[in-house]
TrEMBL record:
It comes from Mesorhizobium denitrificans. InterPro entries: ImuA, P-loop_NTPase. SUPFAM superfamilies: P-loop containing nucleoside triphosphate hydrolases (SSF52540). This is Damage-inducible protein. It comes from the Bacteria.
Amino acid sequence: MAMSSNRFALSELRERIARLEGGSARRREVLSFGVPAIDRVLPGGGLALGALHEVAGGGNGALDGAAAALFAAGIAARTAGKVLWCVTRPDLFAPAIEQAGLPPGRVIYVEAGDEKSVLACFEEGLRGGFGAVVAEIARLSMTASRRLQLAAESSGAIGIAIRRWRRQTEATDFGQPTAAATRWRVSVLPSTPLPVQGVGRARWQLELIRCRAGESADFTVEACDAKGRIALPSEVADRPLQKEKEIGRRRASA
């Protein structure tokens, strides 16, 4: 009888370990940016799936806020399945979101009356089988962010909290700790110069200001294309190659 009981306990322990390992494997899945300079600073080589991430505009203006929304849209566009987007204000410009890779057929928009309702929709959406859930909120407490993180872990969906403020006094909340895996800040830069008259591809200053199990970093990038992909400007992307060539010339002449 004791032998049978021990075998049952051992079998149960193995099942628990397998479930835990399965959960860890899912949390290790990532969504890469396809930009080596960015992916290499992120644990696992990309944004963790089954996790919560935060994004905010770098300044107080509408331009940086719009850039933050487009950055989030680009991330969501590269996930599989439907995307839920929760807002309190009906000022999201859907054609711009489509240009960042999210066509109307993939997005379900929810307009909630207040932030409490948005957070409830956010959490429910993360448990509801969506590939990504985006929510625009001003305040995010540690307790609320932990609930969202647990909801994301349970489904494997990626959650993106876009921090938007009605009043400048609310902006200080962005510096408070949360359970988010990463925290990003996006600022608009002058567009890519063209050899002819016209407006080139938009550029952003992309700051990774917090990364769990990683380090902060900042990048100059070209904004999302029609597939949600960002890129390094050519003069920035060529720097490592130019540096390697310079090192090679120095070695050759030594």
